[in-house]
Amino acid sequence: MTTAVALIVAAGRGQRFGGEAPKQYQPLAGRPLIRHCLEVFAAHPLIAAVAAVIHPDDRDRYAAAAAGLELLPPAIGGATRQESVLNGLESLEALAPDRVLIHDAARPLVDSAIIDRALAALDRAPAAIAAVPLTDTVKRATGDDDPMVAATVDRARLWRAQTPQAFRYADILAAHRSLAGAGLTDDAAVAEAAGLPVALVLGAEENLKVTTAADLSRAERLAAGGPLEFRTGSGFDVHRFGPGNGVMLCGVAIPHDRGLEGHSDADVGLHALTDAILGALGAEDIGSHFPPGDPRWRNADSASFLAFAGERVAARGGRIIHLDVTLICERPKIAPHRAAMIDRIAAILGLPVGRVSVKATTTEGLGFTGRGEGIAAQAVATVALPVDH
Ligand code: MG
What we know:
Layout: E1 4-10, E2 27-28, E3 31-32, H1 33-43, E4 47-54, H2 59-65, E5 75-76, H3 81-91, E6 99-104, H4 112-121, E7 127-133, E8 138-141, E9 149-153, E10 159-168, H5 169-178, H6 187-193, E11 198-202, H7 213-224, E12 228-242, E13 246-249, E14 252-255, E15 259-260, H8 268-281, H9 286-289, H10 303-315, E16 319-328, H11 338-349, E17 356-361, H12 367-370, E18 374-386
Parallel strand pairs: 1-4, 1-6, 4-5, 7-11, 16-17
Antiparallel strand pairs: 2-3, 6-10, 7-10, 8-9, 12-15, 12-18, 13-14, 16-18
Helix pairs in contact: 3-5, 5-6, 8-10
Bound molecules: magnesium ion.
Magnesium ion binds next to strand 12 and helix 8.
């Protein structure tokens, strides 16, 4: 019985999509991008173990993304992809598997059939890679600026390399050790340079590499298994001023000469946002999930209500596209705290800050907010969800 281990390469920094986290930790269909391929390899009956190679700054992100999966401890990557893979291969030395599949975390939609084909090909060759034959006619350009066609390239026998790339472990470890620092961009190139024949097996167009925000959208559509629809929900909340020396607004504690009354921490901003998200889902309202009479929610941190709504979106295979909340009061002044509020809301939901908006207005001294009797908040949430028929 031969053993096969999967090595998931996730140490790169690459392009970010405006969020705090590198792309391999950005959400895809409600789960971190890297988790998709970790789940596929961990569930495959011929894969005995799965290890990732991660960036040293990503230990916490990885631990969160991999929670609940049975995986080997991650290896820490190096300055280049090639160095990272070598570190990963070295980390498997005590295990000494017969075979290793090396896969880029940026390809979340790998499937078990591709893994089957790559492993099966190792019976006839020392290395095998997933790849897709070129179907478009290929042109060579005269240059990068204002390009003209210099030649039509014969596309016969041209393939685009993907991952996973499968190897006999001892071969690829020796090849990586001897070619360290050669600057090769995939592991098949390392095998080729070491003189190992490499078999081509069919990958899939769906096994795309997520490099740009457009790739992420395409992966999102594919992962959803169908079209997405966009839903909008609104939320509104009011809390009355009472004795106190500060208010909690959009997750930020603000010193004030009064407090807000409420069963929880009375954060009107987070309550309105929570209701807006629940509204987009058609999932009742904050009061039905967290009844005000329930002692569990006394003085509760409203961040947990908002996080709950975000988890409901993820559980439906959706994602939050945008949130916009308006705080309505004469005092305290909101503008000095706006950036902190946006940061806090984005952090609670794991969103890029560019997808969160916090605004404020007075009512020109009119009405209950104008008289300083309380604070109101209204919010709009835009959510993408798989279409359910
Ligand atoms: Mg409320």
